[in-house]
Amino acid sequence: MDSLAASLLSTTQGPFNFEASGLINSSDLPKLHLNPNSWSKVSNIIYLDSPVGTGFSFSWNSSDYVTGDLKTASDTHIFLLKWFEMFPEHLNNPFFIAGESYAGIFIPTLASEIMKGLDSGSRPIINLKGYMIGNGVTDKYFDGNAAVPFAHGMGLISDDLYQEIVDVCHGSYLTPSSEKCQSKLNKFKDVIENLNLYNILEQCYDFYYDEEYQCYNCIGDEELDTANMKSPEALASSDKTRERLPVRRSTFTDHKLGSTLSQVISNTSVLCHDDMAPYLWLNNKAVRKAIHAAEERETGRWDTCTDRITYHRDVGSVIDYHKRLISIGLRVLIYSGDHDMVVPYTGSEAWTRSLGYKIIDEWRPWISNAQVAGFTQGYDKNLTFLTIKGAGHMVPEDKPREALEFYSRWLAGERI
């Protein structure tokens, strides 16, 4: 680590998920490739498996696997205090927090915990300067009601269906107020069911249509053995490694529109996402030894998601957290891949605007490599909203060069 560079804590994507975005490319297993767009090129980065039980993190105390939003914030704050005690040469550096998806809850609660600690005299002093959140879960109302207008704006549903939904639901799509509204939302669900909601431009790697049997997610008349498909034995030959395997559930698991958002906060899988490369690489014994991960008998096998955590979502909306943190001078960047339908940019832009800060940099394109890379709007109090054109839920994975560029500019305090 560079003792003079800014430090960034990168949190996980959700309470059940860990995947290091922007760190490795693994198109040719089992080789590791240098990522030319790694954020570590411009800052020190602490990658944290949090809460305990995600990634390679584990505890000897089973009660630690019962956790929630507030406990995760407290535990992470304790971790940071201990980390800075071990590496005091980084104490004077500007410190930032970043993450995506459910980190929209983790980050403001953690930042609040850090600031409360500073007020109460906790040591060492963490030099927190700001945070950035990508396609982050924030507020049930804004996030949950964004999918229908987003789908219409993207041309995924017809004008007629959209108007029918608007007429009977009156903007309340997350909690339907009538059977007519629920019926129209079920129709909406049927239309978009087999899309990759994490990036509507991309294929759904779970999605499988058998031409011979004319059925979805089936092999003959039998269901897929998903447990076996998940195992390395299913990829014994190199040509199989390239196949898009139908290894997870269908996009919607119930009849509520809220499933779009609940994938992030309750499911134990990342739907439509091809995670075989990190699965194979991170479960290799030599790799685990090289990265100083505990043995499998202690942590279990690495997976994108885990089902051993009992997680309590005990915070709800974090809009008030943002207001308090912005008011005390922290710099905040809210960024969104504009083709994510799990946490659509329209909802993020709406809640950001709802904070009521004065616009000081009106909506405009931002440029990367002489091309429009997205759009941005700047507010008073160092709040910025940014979209990334063509990216989905995981921006650094979908648009790595553009992600490094806006991160570098924001970190340096430059105009994006």
TrEMBL record:
Gene Ontology terms for molecular function: acyltransferase activity, transferring groups other than amino-acyl groups; serine-type carboxypeptidase activity
Keyword RNA-binding appears in the UniProt entry: no
Gene Ontology, cellular component aspect: extracellular region
EC number, as in UniProt: 3.4.16.-
Places the protein is found: Secreted
PROSITE patterns assigned: CARBOXYPEPT_SER_HIS, CARBOXYPEPT_SER_SER
Keyword Protease: yes
Listed Pfam families: Peptidase_S10 (PF00450)
Membership in a protein family: Belongs to the peptidase S10 family.
PANTHER family: SERINE CARBOXYPEPTIDASE-LIKE 20, SERINE PROTEASE FAMILY S10 SERINE CARBOXYPEPTIDASE
Name of the protein: Carboxypeptidase
